[in-house]
Structure formats: C-alpha cells, structure tokens
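## Example record

The block below lists the input lines for one assembly entry, exactly as stored, with component labels intact.
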Amino acid sequence: MNYINSMKIALNALKRNKFRSFLTMLGIIIGVASVIVMLAIGQGSKKSIQDQMASMGTNLIFAMPGSEQKGGVRMGSSDAQNMKLSDIDAIEKDCPAISDVSPEVRASGQAVNGNQNWPTTIYGVNNKYFSIRKYTIGTGRSFSENEIQTYAKVCLVGQTVVENLFGKNDPIGQSVRFKNIPLLIIGVLGEKGENGMGQDQDDLVIAPYTTVQKRILAITHIQSIAASAVSESQNNAAITQITRSLRNSHKIKEGAEDDFRVRSQSEMVQTFSSISDIMTVLLGAISGISLLVGGIGIMNIMYVSVTERTREIGLRLSVGGRGNDILLQFLIESILLSVFGGVIGISLGILATQLMSSVMNWPVVITTISVVMAFLVCSAIGIFFGWYPARKAASLNPIDALRYE
Amino acid sequence: MSKTIIQVNQLRKDFYVGEITVHALRGVNLEIREGEFVAIMGTSGSGKSTMLNILGCLDKPTSGSYFLDGISMGELSKNELAALRNIKLGFVFQSYNLLSRTTALENVELPLFYNSKIKSKERRERAEAALEAVGLTDRMHHMPNQLSGGQQQRVAIARSLVNDPVVILADEATGNLDTRTSFEIMALLQDLNQKGKTIVFVTHEADIAKFMTRQVVFRDGHIIREELVTNRNNAVELLKNLPLEELV
Ligand SMILES: Nc1ncnc2c1ncn2[C@@H]1O[C@H](COP(=O)(O)OP(=O)(O)OP(=O)(O)O)[C@@H](O)[C@H]1O
Ligand SMILES: [Mg+2]
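Predicted structure tokens for the full assembly:
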C-alpha cells in the first residue's frame, strides 16, 4: 500500500469539500481550545495558590491548643489556656529541627489615630516572628529584648493599617491607640499582599508579646506557637520534635491524647493544591465532553460522506483501488480533520489563555502535558471515530457501490 | 492468429432478490481476441451489463470460468482482482463517473494513484499523454462541470487508457450523447482500436454497433447471434457527411 498516495488522495478529497471539512473541524477546534483553556485556568489557580502559600513560608509550623477530634467532646481551642511561655523555652532547647520559635497572642479591635480608626488585629510576638512569617521591616526597626522585658508600648504596623490611619504621612514616631493603650510606632512592615486564602497579610499590628499579654489582654498564657523548621525537608522532624516537647512540658502520659495540635504550612499547601487539582479535573472533564461531541461530529460527517460518496468509492474500486486503500483514505481524512482541528484548537486555546492572563489578569499556566494530551486525544478521536465509517467504505462491493443511487 | 484476451466458458450469473432468482446469464461462451472491437448488443434486460461487469472483474459469476489475458479469474482474491483491474482493465461508463471538483488531469491520474510503482512525475506525464490522445490538451485543468458531456466522456476514455490496459470495457458509453458527439467518441475509439487496443462496447443502438468489428447479440442471458461486421462504418467519414444543421 502506498501511504503517500493515500495521503494525497485524502488531502484532495478534503480540499474538494473545504467548507464541510471546516465545519467538521469546528467541533474539534472548540473542544481542544476549551480543554487547553480550562486546564490552564485550573493549573494557574493551583500555581497561584502554591506561590502565595509559599510566600507565607513553606517551613512554617503552628502549634495551637486543642485535640484532634476523635469522637467525644472537643475542647474549644480559643478558651484553652494550656500553652505557656515555658513551652517556648522547652521547644528552643529540645528541637534541633526548629530554627526559630515565637509565642503568639492576638487581639482584634480598633486601631485609632486621632479621628481615624481601623479594625485590625494586633499580634503579640517575639522578634523572631518576622523571619518565621517572612515579614520584612520596610522602615524603622524591630523591638529589642529590653522592650519585650519591660512590656514597652511599641509596635510595628502593616501597610494597610498605615494607609488607613496615616494616609501618606510617615507613621514612624507617631502613636496608635489599641484598646486605649497608646503604642509608639517604631517600624513599618514591608508589603506582602494577599495570602492563598485571600487574606490581607498587611492588615496587622505587631507588638512584643508581653505588651499584648499584660496591657491589652491581661493574660499570662499564650494562644499559639509559630515556629520555622530548619528547612522544608525537616518539617516532619520538626513536627515530631515539637509534639514530643509539648507532651513533655504538658506532662501528658504515654497513650493519652495531645492537648494541642501541630500543623505545617506545607500540609495546608497540599490541601489547597489538591482542591484545585479536583477543580482542574472537573474543568477538564467538562471540556473533554465537548471534545467527545466534536469527535462524534467527525464520525457523523465521515459516515454521511461514505454514503454520499458511494459512487466515488465504486469508481475508485473499479480503477483498481483495494479495500484497504479506501479504508486508509477515509481514515487519513478523519485523522487529518482531527489533527488539523487539534492544531488550530491548540493555537486558539493558547491565544485565548494569553488574552485571559493579559486582559483579565487571571493566573493561567499552560503545561506541555496538556498540549500534548490534547493533541494525542485529537489523533485518537480521528482514528476511533474514523474507523467505523472507513471500514464501511472499504467493505463495499465495487459493482454495488457504482450502482448506488 | 492474434492472441486471446478474453475467454469465458459456461458463464452463469444469478441474482437473488428476496424469493425470486433472476438468471441474468445462463451459460455464456465467448472468446475475444487482441485487436477486436466487439459490440455487445441486445434488448434491455438481456444481460449485457451483467456480462460486462463480470468481464471487468467488478462482479463475480455464479459459475463458469473466465480467463483474462491467460489468467483464471475464479481463483483470485478481492485484492488481486483490484490489482488486475488497475493494470489490465479500463472502464468507460454511461454516466462518465468523473470526480467532481477535480480537474480533468487529476481524474485521468486516478488509476495510477493506486499503482505504487508509478512515481508522480510519470503519473502526470502519462495522464497528459492520455488527454492528448483524446484531444483535450487545452482542457486539462478544467473541472468536469466546465466540460460538455462529450468532453467529459473523452476524459473518462483518457482515464481508461492511462494505465495502458489490455482491454477497454465500455457500457453504453454514448448513451447520454447526441449523434454527432457519439460519432466523435466512436471516431476516437476506432482510432484507438486501429492502434491495436482491444475494446468491448455495450450498446443497444444498431448504428453504433456498425462501427465495430464484431457483434455479439444477447437475449435472455444467452448469446443468440455472433457475426463479423461486413460493411463497417468509418466514424471520421460519417462525421464529414453529417449535416451541421441537424444539430440546430
Ligand atoms: N443487482 C441486481 N440484482 C437483481 N437483479 C439484477 C441485478 N442486476 C441486474 N439484474 C437483472 O439481471 C438482468 C440483466 O440485467 P442487465 O443490467 O445485465 O441488463 P442490460 O442488458 O444491461 O439492460 P439495459 O440495456 O437496460 O442496460 C435483468 O433482468 C436485471 O433485472
Ligand atoms: Mg445495461
């Protein structure tokens, strides 16, 4: 059999019916383009979640009061008072996989500057917190050990707070009142933007934990612990070590349940990535259906054209075409249709994706895999849906085909 | 004596339509030699087309033997028959059967596409030569719908010639054409026959059959008469005498 000739014959046949060929391809074009776009959106949102999570620190580890819910009554973690400053000292001593650790106490309320006020959260921490949470100090300075010891009324503010309370003025040296306590602003945090869950990471006030404990909340316990592992690969070791250290400090007996929970940021990244993975699969499946419809369109057209072109098939058989030549011709026709359609669809999909990212600022990622997949699926559709009509054409008897009306 | 191109013995063909069996051919014996121009005649339904289709390996006989150019057709597979049609046979149909939206040249090239031994350059040259032989050099790149019926039939004849077959089979090839155009086609075929091409031509028109060398008359699936044409017509001469006004 001569493949080059079959290819030429098939190409000529498609050229003879340009408009119909185009209509047939349209289904595939739309299907492939939508697969590319949908996957790009899915992958893009996954990537942007991952990036934003990473900006929060991938080696970040939290410990907070409360137990895993394993049946029975779960203790409200916000009421729990079982975390102490001594836990921090113990962690610093016991955990080689932890590089930095900071206590965390929080209070929500209005931050006030003259007649301006702004609802925000004040975080009481030590000065390792900045590196743990990947905050930078834009201008000014962090607080000193001495300021922590003396419950100094100092704080650092995030950009959002600056914008809302001071406008364009330099806030350093000014004071902000929080629950009627005036706090001197000694630094402004570098801008961080939103995190993966859409929270504004610049809407906060940071003060020494002692200040927040004593002056604002009037408590001696801490609400949670933020720590960073030496590296991301040490996350699990760090979690194990913190758990052991806290169980020790809290004098929890062998076999008894923890009265705290330890979480790493990378676990959360994984959770969110898997959510967007599900989304990608869903989007892909929906556009896959349109691709299937496109394939059925090809089959339909090929089927109709076998009937319509029966006399042509008869003629080809009568001048010496073999069944296999006819089969190959029709198969190549449908493969060409779906592959051309696929190429156009891929280009169109990439174009639409670029447009989306530049005009609408959507996070999109086109992976080679999705392009290759789309292409393979197209070829498969061509073969799969072209086979039956082609088989039918090839099995025709020369004389019956010639006589067909 | 010239060699035998076609030899059939006791050829039968039955068609089964529901309960009814149609005996289209009831034991036909026929021999055709190289260089003959044979008219197959007979009334409608007498089995002419059925006979030609079997000779053309488009259909298989129910029984009987058929030798084409010394090869027994009975034992060949579908693919072998296709290869044989490609190399040894040329067809001309009543309704031309050209591919639409395809130039005359490409239509003529068609049989050669199915012969992988022929490269594209040779294919083109042979198609051009065949079109030249039927006098359509200036219409090579025209589509069928830009050609008259006579011209289309000449393209079809060129297509049947292009593979240099041992025999050309034509079924009512002038059936759709007026007298003058029919005569022109006959002139072309007579010329080809003059150059040695064997032709089998189905017709029910007596005056068309007069252009050929031998007449075979069918009735009811039998050959009832076979005779050489005595005072054979020459199409070129007849065309000269044909009054032009007749066409107007
Ligand atoms: N495919 C078929 N199925 C059933 N019967 C058929 C078939 N082909 C031909 N016949 C029958 O066989 C007989 C011979 O038909 P054939 O076509 O050979 O006649 P013909 O001599 O060519 O007639 P015409 O001059 O009208 O073309 C007819 O009775 C016809 O009805
Ligand atoms: Mg007939």
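Chain A touches chain B through 26 residues (CB under 8 Å). The pocket of adenosine-5'-triphosphate (ligand 1) is lined by residues B 15, 17, 22, 24, 42, 44-50, 204 (CB under 6 Å).
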